[in-house]
What we know:
65 residues; alpha+beta; Factor Xa Inhibitor; 3-stranded antiparallel sheet
Amino acid sequence: MPKLKSKSSVKKRFSTTGSGKLRRNYAGKRHFMRRRTRRFLRTTRGTTAVSQADAKMIRRLLAGG
């Protein structure tokens, strides 16, 4: 049976913390910044943890299953 490949798109979007949690970027920060409120731009800086409901599926895609 051949090796399983992990999804390249998932590798680019998510990373793992030291404690094993998944980290993601906030959505809506790629373009059209002039229409976003200043408050939105401030609160979506940096990264946040992935919800537990989504983490299981993302781990499976990262592991290549």
